[in-house]
Design goal:
Layout: H1 6-14, H2 23-32, E1 41-48, E2 60-64, E3 75-78, H3 84-89, E4 94-96, H4 98-105, E5 113-116, H5 121-124, H6 128-131, H7 149-157, E6 160-164, E7 170-177, H8 182-198, E8 209-216, E9 222-224
Parallel strand pairs: 3-4, 3-5
Antiparallel strand pairs: 1-7, 1-8, 2-6, 8-9
Length: 230
C-alpha cells in the first residue's frame, strides 16, 4: 500500500467520508484540503442514472461557466482563408486548413479545443482517428462545427466547456481552480449541475444524479448531497 504524505493524511482527516456536504460547504473545504503548491484544477465527477449505450441517454452538451475555468484554452480553427483573420481576432490561437490538417496528421495535438466550419468538415473528418480519442473532434452538438467560428472561439475563451457522459455513466468536468473563491466555485458548479438536470432524458429511470464528488488535483474527494442540487 502506497505511503500517504503527512500533508495528504492531514487533508484526508478534514473530510468526513460518510458525510454528504452542501455545495457551498464543499467548495470552502476543497480549498482547505488542497495539498498542491500550484493552482490546481477543481473538478466535478457526476455519476448519472443513465445508460450511455442508448442514444437518447448519451448525455453531451456545453455550458458557459459564469467565472470561466481559470485555464486559458488553446483553440484551433479549421476554416476557409476568408475567415482566418476573423477567427484570430476573436482569440483563436491557430486558424487555417491544409497546413494544420498536415500538422495534426503528423501527430501535433497541442490544443484544447478544435472549431470547424461545416464546409471544411469533409477534410477535417480524416483526422477522426487522432482527434476523436482525445475528445477534440469538432461536433455540432457542442457548437464546435459552425459557420460562425468567431462566436464559437469567443464562447470557448469566455468559459464555455463541453461535457459528455463516459461509458460508465460519469461526467468529469473542470469548474475552476483552487485560487477561485468558494462563491465562484459554487456558482460554476451550480451552472453545470442545473444544466445537467435540465437535460435529464425522459427514458432514464430511478435516481438521475446518483452521486456527485468534487476534488482538486491530488486532494481527497468530497461527496455532495444530490438532494440539495437543483
Amino acid at each position: 500500500m502506497a505511503k500517504v504524505s503527512k500533508k495528504r493524511a492531514a487533508a484526508n482527516a478534514k473530510v468526513d467520508s460518510n458525510k454528504l456536504y452542501a455545495l457551498d460547504e464543499a467548495m470552502k473545504l476543497i480549498k482547505d484540503v488542497n495539498t498542491t503548491k500550484f493552482d490546481a484544477s477543481v473538478d466535478l465527477h457526476i455519476r448519472l442514472g443513465v445508460d450511455p449505450r442508448k442514444a437518447d441517454q448519451a448525455i453531451r452538451g456545453t455550458v458557459s461557466l459564469p467565472h470561466g475555468t481559470g485555464k486559458t484554452k488553446r483553440v484551433l480553427v479549421f476554416c476557409t482563408p476568408d475567415k482566418e483573420e476573423e477567427a484570430k481576432a476573436a482569440g483563436a490561437d491557430y486558424a487555417g486548413l491544409d497546413e494544420y490538417i498536415q500538422k495534426v496528421q503528423g501527430g501535433w495535438t497541442d490544443i484544447d479545443v478544435v472549431v470547424a466550419m461545416p464546409q471544411v468538415m469533409a477534410k477535417v473528418g480524416r483526422l477522426g482517428r487522432i482527434l476523436g480519442p482525445r475528445g477534440l473532434m469538432p461536433n455540432p452538438k457542442t457548437g464546435t462545427v459552425t459557420p460562425n467560428v468567431a462566436a464559437a472561439v469567443a464562447d470557448v475563451k469566455g468559459g464555455k466547456i463541453s461535457f459528455r457522459v463516459d461509458k460508465y455513466g460519469i461526467i468529469h468536468a473542470s469548474i475552476g481552480r483552487v485560487s477561485f473563491t468558494p462563491e465562484k466555485l459554487t456558482d460554476n458548479a451550480s451552472e453545470l449541475l442545473s444544466t445537467l438536470l435540465r437535460m435529464r432524458p425522459s427514458s432514464a429511470k430511478g435516481a438521475y444524479m446518483k452521486s456527485v464528488t468534487v476534488a482538486s488535483t491530488m486532494s481527497p474527494g468530497i461527496k455532495l448531497d444530490p438532494k440539495g442540487i437543483g
